[in-house]
Specification:
This protein is of the alpha/beta class. It contains 10 helices and 7 strands. It has helices at about 1-25, 25-30, 35-45, 65-70, 85-95, 130-140, 155-160, 170-180, 195-205, 215-230; strands spanning about 55-60, 75-80, 100, 115-120, 140-150, 180-190, 240-245.
């Protein structure tokens, strides 16, 4: 009983810290940060050939991805979920008419299926990723897209960012197949300007300068880095974009 209470207390602190992060330092990073923008760009490239009406964004944060997707495809039914109530409330403001909820992907799933599920930059934070993948498979009515990171973990990723793992090469695809889905495509993106160069730079600086409010100077710098990242390889890199479907 004592261990359970300690676990619940630790989880409550984690949720509180995560909610505080959305309220104070991550909103502009997700809107304007070069890596966040490239993640959204690569996911949209991956899903453009697909046909879908309902979209669930797992770990939706403050709703940047769904807002962009809705702007391109206004007919879609937009759903989002997050670990944080603060994030879900922010997303609801960004995506009028969308439906948002709070739940823990490691512990359960929604009782319906969706044409498309996007799970972006989430699994690397979840201790039991196999349970999370089984829950994702249960909600996948058509396709699932996952983005996450692989390769050597940097100190800032284990600390400030909160990674419990970076995937080994090929590990994510194996686990997705084990969860009962079929891997259709894997894109490994980011060499050399995102990884190793940008990740090593963030490690050296403890990722300072990536959070908080973005004024004109920071927005300009973020745009320049975004343009530089267009030169990254889509064949080699530590950022994984995986498309899966039902068997």
């Amino acid at each position: 009983m004592l261990e359970q209470r300690e676990s619940e207390a630790i989880e409550a602190m984690t949720v509180e810290a995560y909610s505080h992060g959305w309220e104070t330092k991550w909103d502009d990073m997700k809107r304007y940060g070069p890596m966040s923008r490239h993640i959204r760009r690569n996911i949209k490239q991956l899903i453009r050939p697909l046909t879908f009406s309902s979209v669930l964004d797992i770990g939706c944060g403050q709703g940047s991805f769904l807002a962009e997707l809705r702007a391109e495809l206004p007919h879609i039914e937009a759903y989002g979920s997050d670990f944080s109530t603060s994030a879900a409330l922010m997303a609801r403001r960004q995506v009028p008419g969308g439906e948002f909820c709070v739940f823990d992907l490691e512990r359960g799933h929604l009782n319906r299926q969706f044409d498309l599920i996007v799970c972006s930059e989430v699994l690397e934070h979840i201790p039991d990723d196999r349970a999370a993948l089984r829950n994702l498979a249960a909600m996948t009515g058509g396709h699932l897209v996952i983005s996450t990171v692989q390769g050597r973990m940097r100190g800032f990723e284990a600390g400030e960012v909160g990674h419990v793992r970076n995937y080994a090469y090929g590990e994510l695809a194996r686990k997705v197949e084990e969860a009962g889905l079929k891997v259709l495509k894997v894109v490994e993106w980011g060499f050399p300007f995102y990884s190793p160069l940008y990740r090593d730079f963030l490690d050296l600086t403890s990722s300072r300068g990536t959070t908080g409010s973005f004024g004109p100077s920071r927005k300009l710098l973020a745009n320049l880095i975004y343009l530089l990242f267009l030169l990254n390889s889509s064949r080699v890199g530590d950022e994984i974009f995986l498309l899966a479907g039902k068997r």
